[in-house]
């Protein structure tokens, strides 16, 4: 389901990521400061990450390594696990927008489940990357 719906969306690449960022910032303006003013390079990195996710969907070891690395890097940018619901909603909205009829309830459920794994894995790596605050 993930691969077939992505195949429909994939030709729209930069349009998908542009839609994602518009949606994210419109619904969550407080996160805008975490990103560079110009998003071209960031959009390319996001699209590459989504493509890697789909490519390695059945290669758990590789996928977990990619997600853990992304989590550590995002911790360095100031992202926190609390951002994941907003990011997930915007990603799903962008995918749905460009998938058209390929965005079935099953596709939505599959992408939601995969995003849950992405958020969980990245969140764990973020937590490990950021030292805990000392107890008061």
TrEMBL record:
GO terms for MF: FAD binding; heme binding; metal ion binding; nitric oxide dioxygenase NAD(P)H activity; oxygen binding; oxygen carrier activity
InterPro entries reported in the protein's UniProt record: Globin (IPR000971), Globin-like_sf (IPR009050), Globin/Proto (IPR012292)
Domain Globin per the UniProt entry, residue ranges: 1-127
Record bears the keyword Zinc: no
GO biological process: cellular response to nitrosative stress; nitric oxide catabolic process
Any matching Pfam family: Globin
Keywords: Heme, Iron, Metal-binding, Oxygen transport, Transport
Similarity section: Belongs to the globin family.
Protein name per UniProt: Globin family protein
Source species of the chain: Kitasatospora camelliae
Organism ancestry: Bacteria, Bacillati, Actinomycetota, Actinomycetes, Kitasatosporales
